[in-house]
Structures are given as structure tokens and as C-alpha cells.
Amino acid sequence: MDDEAEWIPKTEVGAKVKSKEIISLREILEQGKPILEYQIVDFLLPELKEEVLGISSTQRMTANGRKMQYRAIVVIGDTHGYVGFASGKADEARPAIETALRNAKKAIAYIPFGCGSWECGCGAPHSIPIKLEGKSGSVKVTLKPAPRGVGIAGNDIVKKVLGLAGVKDVWSQCRGKTATVYNNTRATFNALNSLNRMRYHGEFGAKKESV
After folding, report:
1. How far apart are CA 83 and CA 189, in angstroms?
2. Dist CA 90 CA 165 (whole Å)
3. Mean pLDDT for each consecutive 10-residue tract of the chain (211 residues)?
4. CA nearest 206: which of 128, 119, 109?
């Protein structure tokens, strides 16, 4: 996290966060306000964890010859409902990772947990409340509520994204070219984030309505 004294907010939301007029990231997200400064997330979620899921490189021709460019894919989360995902590009690997982390913080989402499995019904927020689907390119990810103790049944990408979000028990199914790290990660994130495009009745929601 950057030194708080060095951060000079450039947006109204950033100024309210630094002055502690806003003390919850969820308040910002529920009001639909965009996070335009990654320092907002640093300030409100100092214990955020991060995972680099992949780094790839490409070459392109310039007037000075071939130039290497790196692309990093990262996921972030606090294991208590907040999760973000993004990619970043730069001429070197480390700056690409740093760009991806900043982008992921600005794209962070809050995921409400639940116990939507008919096999469980414990009512504790250890899984997701309903079946979710997300797509990216040719990849389609389906997430289903699972009973307590199942764990995250899915590929490595699904496990890392859901693990950083804090989801403990889920059945998952991935279709398409799942070896593509970006599309696999984005489809998983889109599935989770689809909860924010629905309204719920009850604490963990048995009924859903599109917003």
C-alpha cells in the first residue's frame, strides 16, 4: 500500500475516503460509483491478497526493431467477499503486474455469500446463494452452490478466484478453451459478479430478479 501521506486524491470519492467520510468500500459499490483511483482500495482494504495467474510475452516491430511486450493477469481478494480481476501490459514483466494490480483494484466487486444448496440448508454463508454463469470468449463457467465440506470443485483458476473471494464450497463446470487463462479467469469473475446484477428476497435470496 502506498504511503497515505503521499496519496493526493483526484476524485470526490477518493477525497471522502482519505478524509474518512467514507469508511466502507461496499458503500461505494452499492451506490454504483466508479473506483477511478486504485489507492481507494489500498486505503480501505489494506489486507488485500493477490495472485499472478499468468504472464505472457509478445514481440512487435517498431522503427527501432523488435520490441518485447508483457501481459500479466492477476486476481485480488480479501477472502471476505471482495474480489477483482484484470490484466496489464508493459515493456517489462514487473510493471505489467503492477498495472494489472491497479486495474484489478479499480474493477473490484463485492460478492454476497449464501447457502443455496438443497443438500445443505445450514443457512451459513459458506457458498453462493444460487447457480451462476459467466462467459468470456469461448469459455463458459457455471458455478453451483455446494453443501458444507465439499470445497471448491473446479480447475486451478476457479479455485484461485473463488478462494480469494472467500467462497468455500462450490460445484463448477467449465466449457470451451479453458486453457486460455484470461478467458477462464474472466468467465469465473463474471459469474460471481452476476450476483450484483440481481436483487434478492431474504438474507441469502431464494428468488432472483434481474436489475
Report:
1. 8
2. 27
3. 71 95 94 94 95 91 81 97 96 96 97 91 91 95 95 95 97 90 96 79 41 35
4. 128
CA–CA separation, 36 vs 13, rounded Å? 9
What are the start-end ranges of the H helices in 19-80? 25-30, 39-44
pLDDT of residue 201: 39
Q: Pull the grid cell for residue 183.
A: 478467458
SS3 content of the chain, % helix, strand, coil (to 5): 30, 30, 40
Q: What is the structure's pLDDT at 204?
A: 43
Bridge partners for 44 per DSSP: none
Tell me, what's the pLDDT at 65? 75
Q: Between the CA of residue 9 and those of 16, 36, 80, 204, what are the distances in Å? A: 9, 10, 26, 36
Q: Per DSSP, what are the bridge partners of residue 110?
A: 82
Residue 131 φ then ψ, to 5°: -70, 135
Q: CA nearest 48: which of 9, 7, 83, 97?
A: 83
Please report which helix (H) or strand (E) contains residue 23, including its range.
none
Give dist(CA 153, CA 23) in Å, integer.
35
Q: What is the pLDDT of residue 197?
A: 75
Regarding pTM above 0.90, the answer is no
Q: Domains in the chain, ordered, with CATH?
A: 12-110 (3.30.160.20), 132-197 (3.30.230.10)
